[in-house]
Design brief:
Blueprint lengths: L5 E4 L8 E9 L3 H12 L5 E5 L7 H4 L31 H15 L5 E3 L5 E5 L4 E5 L4 E9 L21 E4 L13 E5 L5 H8 L5 E5 L6 E2 L8 H9 L1 H24 L1 H18 L3 H7 L11 E2 L3 H5 L4 E4 L3 E4 L3 E4 L4 E3 L2 E4 L10 H4 E2 L6 H5 L17 E3 L12 H22 L1 E6 L1 H15 L3 H4 L21 H7 L8 E5 L7
Parallel strand pairs: 2-3, 2-7, 3-4, 5-18, 7-19, 8-17, 9-10, 9-17, 10-13, 11-12
Antiparallel strand pairs: 1-2, 5-6, 6-7, 14-15, 15-16, 20-21
Helix pairs in contact: 1-3, 1-12, 5-6, 6-7
Length: 508
């Protein structure tokens, strides 16, 4: 299988013709892998993958910080068409997930149709030709459809703290870990106590001289029952594939039936909070530290932290938890509100990502020339979590309105990929060159999501989180079950779209 690119037109910057493909896919993470598999299964070969890195992968390639692991069970956090009986732990490490992605990519022969080292920097819709003009780091091409799998966890966000640019020690974001700088024997500060920090702190605590954790908001913690998967268990799973499907199905039902209720039912939240507090009492002896670590909002309002090593690490004598607000960063440390200066040699920012304002917002320019960011404002919109009015033939997956607080995001991705494939099939059957979700359908869908979220913990739980955008809309979160999202993406509802007939039959 080789990549065949059809010549389009001759305004390439270096002369010659700009190549054209039916489908351009951005990224080789789980979205890219799922999309390539779906296209191959449908017999569609006219596609090209754009990957900014020299290697496949996404979040699990780029994030290499100490202790990185997934908080979703291994069998659930995998592609349905590529079961893996060889997971080494019940909750896989980041490195093993990346190895899994690489294996799936090899099996799909994705490298044969990928431009590696080519980051998409600009995309503009051409209504006359019903195609996207795409500019990468060094090349240009056109595509009838774009499937953007860049997600929302690709752009790290540094904290907006005065003086951060003046720090003279080692400073980096957790998602861009500087492995060239050893932290052994150093005074280290970690800003943040979210999903990354709770893995980093236990991993580096034994080797650093002093570790100061700056906490803005305490999080609810549930112990993670992680363990090694024995060689015997792996051998059984290889010999009885159905057993792996049964395990995956059980994990799916548990999370979609019970854990989702944490978000929707106060009584279930009270039970979950009691479990979390009991766990804290068992692992944190110091009453003052327990008080610092006790959240002042309902469980589930922010991402629940699933870990069994966070609290034991904070108990260690070389660890301090600082809850006073940071006022500035100096050349040699972190100053807090009471004037105290914590002198440190290294500063790790575990401060999250640009979720509701991803880089794709500035890259894609729609029918009227405006970018996604300009179209969205402070409240991103995506019908079915996939399409946006003013951006024909652009399908963005794993981004707006699909995140969950209880389920594997891979399952959400596969549901969205199915929706895209149904869109392509519908377009072929009806002889269409472009589809664009109508403004009314988009806004009605957004209103429906808002109705679903208004009584959930995200809206009434008493916290600020990335699940909601600055206007309070559920821009990032899917406020229902994974089964419900699968149902909503099962068919392409062409009646919600503005349809452009093709001038000639569209080739499959």
């Amino acid at each position: 299988m080789t990549t065949t690119l059809t010549p389009a037109h001759s305004d390439a910057p270096t002369g010659g013709e700009i190549p054209h493909v039916r489908v351009a896919i951005v990224g080789t993470g789980f979205t890219g892998l799922a999309m390539v598999h779906a296209l191959q299964q449908a017999g569609r070969e006219d596609y090209l993958v754009l990957e900014k890195s020299p290697e496949v992968g996404g979040v699990w390639r780029d994030n290499t910080y100490p202790g990185i692991a997934c908080d979703v069970p291994s069998h659930l956090y995998s592609l349905s068409f590529a079961p893996n009986p060889d997971w080494e732990r019940t909750f896989s490490s980041g490195g093993q997930i990346w190895e899994y992605e690489e294996r799936v990519a090899r099996e799909l022969r994705i490298a044969e149709k990928t431009w590696f080292g080519e980051e998409l920097v600009d995309g503009r819709w051409d209504a006359a030709r019903s195609c996207w003009h795409l500019t990468t780091t060094t090349r240009r091409l056109t595509a009838q459809f774009v499937v953007d799998g860049s997600g929302v966890l690709g752009a790290p966000k540094l904290p907006d703290i005065p003086g951060i640019e003046d720090f003279q020690g080692t400073l980096f974001h957790s998602a861009r870990w500087n492995h060239a700088e050893s932290l052994a024997g150093k005074r280290v500060a970690v800003i943040g106590t979210g999903a990354s920090a709770i893995q980093i702190v236990p991993a580096i605590q034994p080797e650093v001289e002093r570790l100061t954790v700056f906490q803005r908001t305490a999080g609810w913690v549930i112990p993670r029952n992680d363990r090694d998967v024995t060689a015997v268990e792996r051998r059984i799973l290889r010999r009885i594939p159905f057993l792996q499907k049964l395990i995956r199905g059980g994990q799916y039902v548990y999370r979609d039936a019970f854990l989702l209720q944490v978000m929707h039912r106060p009584a279930v939240r009270r039970f979950a909070e009691a479990v979390s507090k009991a766990y804290m009492r068992r692992t944190i002896d110091d009453p003052a530290l327990r008080e610092k670590l006790t959240p002042d909002f309902e469980i589930g309002c922010k991402r629940i932290l699933i870990t069994s090593v966070w609290y034991p690490a904070l108990n260690q004598p070389n660890v301090d938890v600082e809850t006073s607000p940071i006022t500035e960063i100096t050349a040699n440390g972190v100053r807090i509100a009471d004037g105290t200066l914590h002198e440190v040699d290294a500063l790790v920012c575990a401060t999250g990502f640009h979720v509701v304002d991803p880089p794709a917002g500035a890259i894609f320019h729609g029918r009227d020339g405006r970018s996604l960011a300009e179209t969205w404002g402070i409240s991103p919109r995506a019908y079915r979590g996939v399409t946006t009015h003013n951006f024909p033939n652009l399908f963005r997956i794993g981004s707006i309105g699909t995140g969950t607080g209880h389920m594997s995001h891979v399952m959400q991705i596969e549901s969205a990929v199915h929706y895209v494939m149904e869109a392509l099939r519908t377009m072929d059957e009806r002889g269409l060159s472009a589809v664009e979700v109508s403004y009314d359908a988009q806004e009605q869908y957004a209103a429906r999501l808002h109705g679903l979220v208004k009584d959930t913990v995200w809206a009434v739980g008493g916290c600020d989180s990335w699940y909601l955008d600055p206007s309070g809309e559920p821009s990032a979160v899917w406020p229902s079950s994974a089964w419900h999202y699968r149902k909503w993406t099962r068919r392409f509802d062409a009646e919600a779209y503005e349809l452009t007939p093709a001038a000639a039959p569209v080739a499959a």
